[in-house]
Design goal:
Order of helices and strands: EEHEEEEHEEHEEEEHEHEEHHHE
Structural class: alpha+beta
Shape: globular
Length: 345
């Protein structure tokens, strides 16, 4: 009952995404957490349940055109403004302060939130459909905050006067997951009938129904979570492989330092390919408070995390694959072994 929103309270599961099997009239449905449901119940995806095979063919809103919103995204940090009013007049990235130009932002005006979907019995499925659905969708995760991170806790890590990284802690930030298209698809988005909510096939696009106009959309959902946004400074010389190493070390350090399960914390790479950032967020239902504690006492976490990075580095040196990290060895080894840390807020 809590998952369906009948019970108020604390730390209950958030409202899931639900799909009706074989049509809404059958009154049989399954539900998933929002981020999982966006992928599992995506357009024309196949669902196997209790020996049956179903194809997601429709979403619940009847008039799709009335529910479309737009999103404005910073390519550098993956910070997003959701809705026309929120993005209006916002001309710089809240994290880096970089002014927006046509080259460093993305704008999509055809987003539809996925809340409920319907499916149909599907026994005849071609091999191409099986292959396509097994490969899944292209999804992207974005960060949003009601105050554009103005009240976020900002931390700078310096070593002997040299800035190493910046951290932003924001409680109850909004995480937006966007389903852009099939991995095997050529075009972005999904075609849908704006009056009926049915997803359209290629044959239906050739002969459209005038009473059910077709709109190309992207699906999204959102969740709230405490986040810690880590911005490595460019002077570190980290390549993408080096940032991935740091991402892994930070995530594992939190798990061991606070004795939590891997499913309770998650880390994602954010931003452009040239200078990736790291976002840590609490994926457990309800806040577990570890990121808040890190923001209050960052020094213990930083030292613990650096030990994990050193361990990874030394392990890869022994395997003669250190070059895969893409690190500038003299600077990184010095930064990781020095004890003169300065934390400023």
């Amino acid at each position: 009952m809590a998952s369906e929103g009948f019970l108020p309270g604390y730390n209950f599961t958030r409202l899931p995404i639900r799909v009706f099997l074989g049509g809404k009239d059958r009154n049989e449905s399954i539900s998933r957490p929002r981020f999982i449901g966006l992928k599992e119940f995506g357009p024309n995806n196949l669902i196997y349940h209790n020996g049956g095979k179903y194809k997601v063919n429709r979403i619940t809103p009847n008039d799709v055109s009335l529910d479309l919103v737009e999103i404005k995204i910073s390519k550098e940090t993956n910070y997003a403004f959701l809705g026309k009013d929120e993005g209006k007049g916002k001309n710089q990235d809240p994290i880096t302060g970089t002014q927006f130009t046509s080259s460093n932002i993305e704008l999509y005006q055809n987003l539809l939130e996925l809340e409920e979907a319907q499916s149909e019995n599907s026994e005849r499925i071609s091999c191409m459909e099986e292959v396509r659905t097994s490969e899944g969708y292209i999804t992207e995760l974005y960060l949003n905050s009601t105050d554009s991170l103005i009240d976020a806790t900002k931390i700078k890590l310096t070593v002997d006067g040299d800035e190493l990284m910046k951290l932003f802690y924001a409680p109850a930030a909004k995480l937006i997951l966007l389903n852009k298209k099939w991995k095997r698809g050529r075009d972005d988005g999904f075609d849908i009938g704006t009056k009926t909510g049915f997803f359209k096939t290629k044959k239906q696009l050739i002969k459209p129904n005038p009473e059910d106009p077709i709109q190309n959309i992207m699906l999204y959902t959102y969740d709230t979570s405490d986040i810690l946004y880590v911005q490595p400074i460019k002077s570190l010389g980290l390549t993408e492989d080096g940032v991935v190493t740091m991402q892994y070390a930070l995530e594992k350090a939190i798990e061991k330092l606070y004795n939590i399960e891997p499913v309770e914390i998650d880390a994602k790479l954010m931003g452009s390919d040239e200078h990736k950032n790291i976002m840590l967020y609490e994926s457990a239902e309800g806040s577990i408070g570890v990121l808040k504690d890190i923001a209050r006492n960052p020094i213990n976490f930083v030292i613990y995390s650096m030990k994990h990075i050193v361990y990874v580095v030394m392990t890869m040196i022994q395997r003669k694959t250190y070059f895969l990290l893409g690190l500038k060895q003299p600077m990184m080894i010095y930064c990781l072994t020095t004890t003169k840390w300065i934390i400023s807020k």
